């Protein structure tokens, strides 16, 4: 990527491989590679971002109404990801994610919504790029022993979760936060059995959703820190 004013490169590049496996192998071989004395490459899988974060949403709006309203003012919208308040499932948390069919559609929607000329519900909305959903390293995911459990009803306690999931194997710990929780197993196979056995089951009146917890994304945290530094110094 070149700077049109200085003619110098911007310090990063995109490299396209013929298949995903080759790209992942290149990441393993080249990430943290010392390209010259004291200078190391940072290499990761690039993800075409097709998701926008939208704030300032009326809390009584449903997923269906948001999808309908934003489809009227933007093109290529395929899904709305909305989170409800833990103690009131009829209200959302005041933000959502808009999923578009491709990066081009998302970029055009972002420009249109940020222009100030387009208003939804009579008001301008806060729009930013959402962090792209990156696929974690399959080798790392194959070792994960922690479950991410969401859509928990308010009455669900850590004690109830511990009692429910310990039927599948020995637990290290359980941590509930608002309407989701992390369940740590000692054994990977027990975690997978619990996920298969409990996903979609009802717990205190709500159907729970379970996936393997993704490990912390160090590169994402580094990007967020760099972005914050830029804002503070800009």
From TrEMBL:
Subcellular location: Cytoplasm
Keyword RNA-binding: yes
Domain of life, per lineage: Eukaryota
InterPro entries the UniProt entry points to: HnRNP_R/Q_splicing_fac (IPR006535), Nucleotide-bd_a/b_plait_sf (IPR012677), RBD_domain_sf (IPR035979), RRM_dom (IPR000504)
CDD domains in the record: RRM3_hnRNPR (cd12494)
Signal peptide, first to last residue: none
Disordered: annotated span: 213-234
Occurrences of domain RRM (ranges): 1-48, 50-132, 145-215
NCBIfam families associated with the record: hnRNP-R-Q
PANTHER family assigned to the protein according to its UniProt record, in alphabetical order: HETEROGENEOUS NUCLEAR RIBONUCLEOPROTEIN (PTHR21245)
Designated name of the protein: HNRPR protein
Species per Swiss-Prot/TrEMBL record: Polyodon spathula
Lineage: Eukaryota, Metazoa, Chordata, Craniata, Vertebrata
């Amino acid at each position: 990527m070149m700077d049109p004013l200085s003619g110098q490169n911007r310090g990063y590049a995109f490299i396209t491989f013929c298949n995903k496996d080759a790209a992942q192998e290149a990441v393993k071989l080249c990430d943290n590679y010392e390209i010259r004395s004291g200078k190391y490459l940072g290499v990761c899988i690039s993800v075409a971002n097709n998701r926008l974060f939208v704030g300032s949403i009326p809390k009584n709006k449903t997923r269906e109404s948001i999808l309908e309203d934003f489809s009227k003012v933007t093109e290529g919208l395929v899904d709305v990801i909305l989170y409800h308040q833990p103690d009131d499932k009829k209200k959302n948390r005041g933000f959502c994610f808009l999923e578009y069919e491709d990066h081009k559609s998302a970029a055009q929607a972002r420009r249109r919504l940020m222009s100030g000329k387009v208003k939804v519900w009579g008001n301008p909305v806060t729009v930013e790029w959402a962090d792209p959903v990156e696929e974690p390293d399959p080798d790392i995911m194959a070792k994960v022993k922690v479950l991410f459990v969401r859509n928990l009803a308010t009455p669900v306690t850590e004690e109830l979760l511990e009692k429910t999931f310990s039927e599948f194997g020995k637990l290290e710990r359980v941590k509930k936060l608002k309407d989701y929780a992390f369940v740590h197993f000692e054994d990977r196979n027990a975690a997978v059995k619990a996920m298969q056995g409990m996903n979609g089951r009802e717990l205190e009146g709500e159907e729970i959703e379970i996936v393997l917890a993704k490990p912390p994304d160090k590169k994402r945290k580094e990007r967020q820190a760099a972005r914050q530094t830029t804002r503070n110094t800009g």
